Amino acid sequence: MTQDGLVSRASRHSARETMERLLAALAARNMTVFARIDHAANAIAAGMTLRPTEVVLFGNPKGGTVLMQDRQPAGIDLPLKALVWEDAAGQAWLSYNDPQWLAARHGLGATSAAAVEAMTGVLCATAEEATR
User: Fold this and answer.
1) What is the pLDDT of residues 27-58, one digit of tens each?
2) What is the pLDDT of residues 51-107, one digit of tens each?
3) C-alpha closest to that of 75 among 110, 102, 49, 101
4) pTM (predicted TM-score)
5) What angle do CA 113, 116, 117 make, to 5 degrees?
6) Closest by Cα among 70, 64, 132, 54 to 99
7) What 8-state DSSP symbol labels residue 88?
8) In the structure, what pLDDT confidence band is assigned to residue 13 with cuts at 50, 70 and 90?
9) C-alpha gyration radius of the chain
10) How far apart are the first and last CA of the chain?
């Protein structure tokens, strides 16, 4: 499902396993993982509760740089990120920003089209691997 540029895919696996599968799919594509943030663990540290919610920031500088060369403010949405989370019913989800939506948001031109297509392909493929 896609809403306001956010793509969300239900996973057949737990949130933890979905994240591990996502990381493996990114590694298989030689994507750099820049950060991994466990929001649920941070909530516990703050004395609060939160269902599994974890984000990973990743990318390939060759692809992202092309977007920033076109429109430097696109850097606010880079590197790419994916959120693995669990809803109230216990269903795990993987969500990410649609690169086509990011291109429209930043008014990216033709010089970015190939990079945006490549990002779209990587995100679709890794999401499929992580959730199926």
Assistant:
1) 999 999 999 999 999 999 999 999 999 999 99
2) 999 999 999 998 899 999 999 999 999 999 999 999 999 999 999 999 999 999 999
3) 102
4) 0.94
5) 85
6) 64
7) T
8) very high
9) 15
10) 15
Helix, strand and coil percent figures for the chain, each rounded to 5: 50, 25, 25
CATH placement of domain 2-126 = 3.30.310.70
Calpha distance 41→47 (Å, rounded): 10
**Tokens describing residue 63:** 């692809």
How does 55-88 read in b/e, with b if 16+ C-beta sit within 10 Å? bbebbbeebbebbbebbeebeebbbbbbbbbbee
For residue 104, how many other CB atoms are within 10 A of its CB? 12
Query: Which amino acid, one-letter code, is at 13?
Result: H
CA distance 119 to 112: 11
Specify which residues 38 forms β-bridges with: 54
The first and second tokens of residue 115, run together, are 């990079």
Quickly count: other Cβ atoms within 10 Å of residue 126's Cβ. Answer: 24
Q: Where are the domains of the chain?
A: 2-126
